[in-house]
Amino acid sequence: MHKRYRWAVIGTGTIARKFLSDLSRIPEAEVYAVCSRSLSRAREFGEDYGATAFYDDVLAMAEDQNVDIVYVATPHTEHFGNAITCMENGKAVLVEKPMAVNGGQARKMMECARRNNVFLMEAMWSRLFPAFRTLVKWVAMGRMGQIRNISADFGFLNTHGPEERLLNPVLGGGATLDVGPYVIWAAASLVGLPAKVQAMGRLGETGVDEHTIINLQHSMGVTSQLMCGIDGKTPQQLIITGTEGWIWVPDFWHADTLIYQPRGESDEEVLSFPYEGLGYQFQINEVMDCVSKGFTESPRVPLSMSVSIMEVMDEVRRQIGVRYAMD
Ligand SMILES: NC(=O)c1ccc[n+]([C@@H]2O[C@H](COP(=O)([O-])OP(=O)(O)OC[C@H]3O[C@@H](n4cnc5c(N)ncnc54)[C@H](OP(=O)(O)O)[C@@H]3O)[C@@H](O)[C@H]2O)c1
């Protein structure tokens, strides 16, 4: 068993709150510090979770010798600067998805982690659920035969205004960066990175995509049809079709069930993987396990994959015409 890790979080928004509700239930993890743009907000937010150190400056927090691991929970456009400051000061970092705004930033973050010999992982929590890990094993061992096609969708209805991060181009708004990582990570984790990318999207009044369709071609002619959207809720499911059957994964981004329909007349097989809380414990434990082993990245959420997926999203955005100031 490893030591008790002291975590710090940057950002006091929606995901920080959900993440800390799971983190605060893990005995090996301590919610130690909160960093906000406002010191009073850091204190008010952090005290709910037992934090004892509060900052309104990322550098000062990164220099705190008591901090072991930093969780970056700010808008996409802040990920690069926040993570670099923490890594340059020797901190392990878990950075929210998407890892950055573009592939160039993500690559510099990977290089910074390696140069400083510190741990860095994109918070692709979906990859770490027991159900999804089982699915990855099944595909690798050929349980569904040869995989032919993957389809995945992640659409929800945004109710926030144009100045909020989901629609605001200054904060990296748009469906591709917000929910694109889930569908692309799902496909790439199962059948590898694509050689070919085709995208079509609907851009809204703020100039960012409100939904986008992404078709990928992987090796051996395997295809993926992916959809990400912030303008309407979709079933949020993943379907993998192979020569020996197909698998349906409802709510694939926080999966607790795999439904396998073998080829022919056999009955479907339903496997359940129940979990407690919201499900962030799997990525929290992955980070602490990797750090305790001296790893600088997770074998399941490797940095090269995060960088390549950012590059796929660069290409998607190039095709649909979405650009940000930092591109
Ligand atoms: N893994 C998941 O399930 C999941 C779910 C939702 C979102 N996310 C990711 O988490 C990140 C944050 O999303 P969120 O929904 O939590 O966003 P949010 O509710 O807007 O919170 C972001 C927080 O970042 C801080 N911040 C720092 N600079 C900011 C700026 N320039 N503008 C606005 N806020 C700023 C703010 O805290 P202070 O005011 O205290 O500084 C704010 O509360 C995004 O990258 C998103 O993709 C992940």
Summarize the structure.
The protein is an alpha/beta fold. 34% of the residues lie in helices and 25% in strands.
Write structural notes for this entry:
Belongs to the Gfo/Idh/MocA family. Residues 6-122 form the Gfo/Idh/MocA-like oxidoreductase N-terminal domain. It comes from Gehongia tenuis. Residues 132-247 form the GFO/IDH/MocA-like oxidoreductase domain. The structure is a single chain. The chain has 327 residues and is an alpha/beta fold. It folds into two domains: 5-123, NAD(P)-binding Rossmann-like Domain (Rossmann fold); 130-274, Dihydrodipicolinate Reductase, domain 2 (2-Layer Sandwich). Helix content is 34%, strand content 25%. Helix 4 (76-88) runs parallel beside helix 5 (103-116), helix 5 packs antiparallel against helix 9 and helix 7 (175-191) packs across helix 9. The structure holds NADP nicotinamide-adenine-dinucleotide phosphate. NADP nicotinamide-adenine-dinucleotide phosphate is lined by residues 11-16, 36-38, 41, 73-76, 78, 96-97, 123, 125, 165, 171, 178.
